[in-house]
Input
Amino acid sequence: MTSPLALTVHDQPWREAARVVDEGLGQANEQAAPLHEVQALQCFVCTPAGEVVGGAVGRTWGRCAELQQLWVSPALRRQGLGARLVRAFEQRASERGCRLCYLETFSFQAPALYRSLGYEAVATIEGFGDGITKHLMTHAWPAP
Output
């Protein structure tokens, strides 16, 4: 006879349980897909002293690139650094064979920047506080 299972709900992080779920999902994903082919991709802007003042962080897999984070120091914003970082990220992704980049951005982040670079919102999620929306955006380019 087996003992009954218990379902619990938590408002505070239970790190050990979350680690078990993360590892279990990781193992299932590794069995289902060639995740060993995923490659990190990072671009940074640094001062002459080596201080990081901006960066684009993501990954590539097959013909897709995912831009996970874009940040520029507040003092250096609106000078084109974000656009340069995105273009450098896309260029390296293209060199790896990617033909599409995708990302998620909130309405208070940089959707206008991404639109100016050719990204289109393919999905918008509403319902966050203060009228904030989240956009899934993509940008494709032809093979060289």
Summary: The CA atoms of residues 124 and 135 lie 5 Å apart. The mean pLDDT is 95. The chain has one domain: 36-140. The radius of gyration is 19 Å.
